[in-house]
Amino acid sequence: MYKLAFIGGGDGSIAGYPHFIASQMDRRFEVIAATFSSNEQTNIDTSKRLNIKNIYKNYKELIENEKSNLDAVVILAPTPVHFEMIQYLLEQNINVICEKPLVSSIDEIEKIEKFYDENNHFLVVTNNYSGYPMVRQLKEEIAQNNLGKILHIRLKMPQESFLRPPKSIKYPQPWRLKDDFIPMISLDLGVHLHHLSYFLLGKEPSKVFAAYDKYSNYDVIDDVNILLEYSDGVKGNFWLSKTALGNRNGLHIEIYGDKGSAVWHQENPEKLQLSYRDGKMIILDRGGELDISNKLYNRMTPGHPSGFIEAFANLYNDIANGLDNYKQNKPYTSDYVYGFNHAKNGLKLLHNASISNEKKEWITNK
Ligand SMILES: NC(=O)c1ccc[n+]([C@@H]2O[C@H](COP(=O)([O-])OP(=O)(O)OC[C@H]3O[C@@H](n4cnc5c(N)ncnc54)[C@H](O)[C@@H]3O)[C@@H](O)[C@H]2O)c1
To answer: Which residues 6+ apart lie within 8 Å of 272 measured at CB?
Structure first.
């Protein structure tokens, strides 16, 4: 089992507990050390609850003491502090598994590029939504031309959290209420849609047009519309929102080809709806005959729903496979595991979206 340390992810955080469970679900990883929180008491309480003995006040102390025991470090701290942590960890040649977004800006990613060595460092980003089996099946449907020539793709991630915050945590956290050139909503949600669009289509848009809005009382962007054009004529759009009441996390994919279309909705993640030119509509589910196969997709037999945490665990299993490869000097990124270049393309797209929002014109995405 690979040995992990967590930075961040203390009790009361959003990402921490899902990572803790998902990383260890299939016995590929074990969390052996952590600095769970910048709050001392939360750090202690979380370590007691999760029974983690090797607990440190900060990440530098953690690395000084545990470096030789670790296979990778997982960054679950707020986005604005990812950069300093990645720099420190890569300089020490520590393998890094980082929550999305990798960093906050083009400036930061270009700084990382200066010390990141693709042939030596292990650096992956947890793009968890492509861990769902039915999203992976959709990728296969497209690859096998079952939808024909793709015409347009529609991805949305509307949430209600700025008007109706989740009751289980203190939300929004202060760091989510500060926008930089790429607004926080795009770093929070837009990177997921960039990832899914690339995951499904295998290409980046060549042009982007964006419009940002503020509807809540917080003085930050909370609603983003992005239009996309690809060099081969495919069109697309992203909608991100934190002010869309009724949407807890309305991640939704629609993709339209000239032979068929597909719809997937994360609140019903085991089903993929396909519609064809002859009028036939079918629902594929995890119990159907799928092109994708991995025994983990059926940890429990179909009919017993699996969801977000299991999808995250699928990704962790792929990351463990990536680590296996890395240790044998083979490529560690794959169709399911993405790293620096993908993160850079995502930030570039969202940066160009911000330029478009300012200039109110289409921007070439290069
Ligand atoms: N993939 C997903 O579905 C998903 C969901 C939520 C958040 N995220 C990402 O995960 C990251 C964390 O988001 P969150 O919503 O859990 O944030 P959060 O504010 O809820 O929690 C952050 C945690 O990190 C701790 N922390 C802060 N600074 C630290 C430091 N220097 N050292 C150690 N711990 C530190 C905090 O005390 C807290 O426990 C962000 O990058 C976010 O984009 C991803």
So the answer is: 134, 137, 138, 141, 262, 263, 264, 283, 284, 285
